[in-house]
Inverse folding.
């Protein structure tokens, strides 16, 4: 089934209902559907092999996503924050593409590659005007709907492919059609080239929940938009939530009483922050979502009631769940395996494997699925005895000291309880004696004296094991994060090696 | 009847997308559905419960699954046996 049917159904059930708001302009489902049909004509006529978005979030993301789907061409939103050389290389890999957004940059970086480039406003206008025969034969949706380049910090970015069937399975399995009331609106502030940004569009359209786009996140703008559009739902990454809390504490004036639900994901949520948020928004429903590009977004979630129960509980086991990513979706299978592929019992950490219709695991270059269709996520984690999933970093981040596997998370979680430490990262540093040893990059909290190296080493020795004691301790004003709030561990390693 | 294909009722306005299929005759309102069928008649008794937009319908053995993309007065069946609503556990919005 073609994912474009999701928009078509929303338009059929409520053609005049507002589906999207961006920069003050409102788009009905009928208009979005019409524009997507027109866009598919433009795309077909261009002979493009991919449709790329090189732009911030706007209505063009919806029109391009579904227009590409109707035309049977993969939609490939690009990270406009990439350096010229990297972006040029990606454009070459998807040539000839119909590119929407920064035309000047396409011309400068990819001249002669055969792309057709449109500025955003021209694309939407041309799409609305393109003759779209209602009976035009559309792509049956048996192929690739979306191609997303992974961030590729070590090698060339991989092109992850999501089939129509993956995304449709995810939406049909997790969203009830037309389930949103007329007054519901969801605020989307994640970039359009991130799987969470794409899934948010598809889920909200199928639920008929009005999408309110915030193209460039700033906490004050986010709060004002919640107020102005009476937003009921929002998805944020943890760093965004932290900045929103800070803005509220600074006294930014906004009526956010309409906000019923906040979902978060995309990076590790500090325990202190979610506790603070639960207190600050006592009636808001919080949902923690865990997923990957290769799994069409969410595969496990911790729901609102579980958040409140864990926050209130005196039982350490229940309390601990606030740091989990909840229970796997009923529509996916999930296992923890050791390095030899053996399935591990509850409580033991290993690599997270997942299988299900929404799981792609396909790259343009190769399939990552094993013979039985399981996808190795490269995320480390464990399940507790009640089936709650806890993440323990990327499998590649494990520090191997003299043959012993050390998860950076346990060291970081401990050190974060030190009042003078506001942020910390533990990474592998070269060691003559052990091969690898623990190095830590520490950010001292404002107003506190810098804790000594020895104090921190002693803290780890007393609470964990001697193998966890950092061999190298260094202090930095901040740690490097990407725009989604993900710690860039490779850059931390470079900082410690310098 | 390939998965992904869109089929129409010959008895009412219902349309469905085939999500899963492994054999048999898919009917609506008591008559077979087809990609180019058109329906403005009356669904047969017993197959006139109506279809609901956005709902999924399955048989007891899980061999067929349809997604209703346009509602109508008939109801879906496989080889004369009515399909049932596929109940999905509601999940909180996560993205």
């Amino acid at each position: 089934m073609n994912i474009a049917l999701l928009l078509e159904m929303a338009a059929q059930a409520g053609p005049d209902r507002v589906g999207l708001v961006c920069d003050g302009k409102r788009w009905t489902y009928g208009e979005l559907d019409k524009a997507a049909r027109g866009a598919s004509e433009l795309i077909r006529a261009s002979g493009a092999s991919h449709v790329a978005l090189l732009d911030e979030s706007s209505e063009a993301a919806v029109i391009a996503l579904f227009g590409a789907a109707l035309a049977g061409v993969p939609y490939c939103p690009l990270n406009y924050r990439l350096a010229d050389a990297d972006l040029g290389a990606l454009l070459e890999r998807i040539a000839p593409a119909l590119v929407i957004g920064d035309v000047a940059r396409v011309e400068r970086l990819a001249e002669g590659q055969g792309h057709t480039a449109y500025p955003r406003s021209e694309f939407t206008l041309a799409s609305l005007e393109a003759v779209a025969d209602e009976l035009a034969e559309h792509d049956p949706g048996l192929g690739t709907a979306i191609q997303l380049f992974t961030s590729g910090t070590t090698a060339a970015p991989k092109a992850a492919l999501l089939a129509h069937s993956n995304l449709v399975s995810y939406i049909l399995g997790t969203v009830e059609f037309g389930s949103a009331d007329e007054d519901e609106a969801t605020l989307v502030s994640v970039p359009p080239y991130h799987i969470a940004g794409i899934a948010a569009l598809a889920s909200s359209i199928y639920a008929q929940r009005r999408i309110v786009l915030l193209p460039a996140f700033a906490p004050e703008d986010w709060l004002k938009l919640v107020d102005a559009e009476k937003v009921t739902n929002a998805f944020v990454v943890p760093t965004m939530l932290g900045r929103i809390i800070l803005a509220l504490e600074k006294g930014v004036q906004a009526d956010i009483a309409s906000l019923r639900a906040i979902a978060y994901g995309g990076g590790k949520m500090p325990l202190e922050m979610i506790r603070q948020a639960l207190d600050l928004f006592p009636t808001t429903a919080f949902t923690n979502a865990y997923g990957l590009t290769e799994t069409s977004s969410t595969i496990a979630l911790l729901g609102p009631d579980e958040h409140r129960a864990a926050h209130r509980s005196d039982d350490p086991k229940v309390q601990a769940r606030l740091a989990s990513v909840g229970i796997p979706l009923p529509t996916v299978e999930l296992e923890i395996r050791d390095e030899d592929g053996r399935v591990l019992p509850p409580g033991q950490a290993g690599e997270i494997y997942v299988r299900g219709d929404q799981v792609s695991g396909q790259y343009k270059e190769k399939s990552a699925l094993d013979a039985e269709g399981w996808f190795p996520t490269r995320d480390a984690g464990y399940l507790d005895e009640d089936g709650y999933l806890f993440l323990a970093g990327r499998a590649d981040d494990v520090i191997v000291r003299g043959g012993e596997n050390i998860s950076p998370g346990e060291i970081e979680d401990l050190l974060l309880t030190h009042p003078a430490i506001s942020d910390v990262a533990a990474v592998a540093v070269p060691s003559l004696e052990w091969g690898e040893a623990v190095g830590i990059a520490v950010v001292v909290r404002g107003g506190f004296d810098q804790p000594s190296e020895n104090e921190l080493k002693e803290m780890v020795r007393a609470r964990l094991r001697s193998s966890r004691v950092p061999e190298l301790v260094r202090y930095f004003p901040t740690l490097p994060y990407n725009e989604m709030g993900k710690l860039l561990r490779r850059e931390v390693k470079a900082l410690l090696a310098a | 009847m390939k998965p992904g294909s869109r089929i129409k009722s010959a008895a009412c306005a219902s349309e469905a997308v085939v999500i899963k299929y492994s054999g048999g005759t898919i009917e609506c309102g008591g008559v077979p559905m087809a990609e180019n069928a058109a329906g403005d008649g009356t669904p047969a008794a017993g197959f006139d419960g109506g279809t609901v937009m956005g709902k999924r319908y399955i048989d007891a053995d899980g061999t067929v699954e349809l997604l209703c993309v346009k509602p109508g007065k008939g109801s879906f069946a496989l080889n004369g046996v009515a399909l049932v609503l596929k109940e999905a556990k509601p999940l909180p919005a996560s993205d």
Remarks:
- The radius of gyration of chain B is 13 Å.
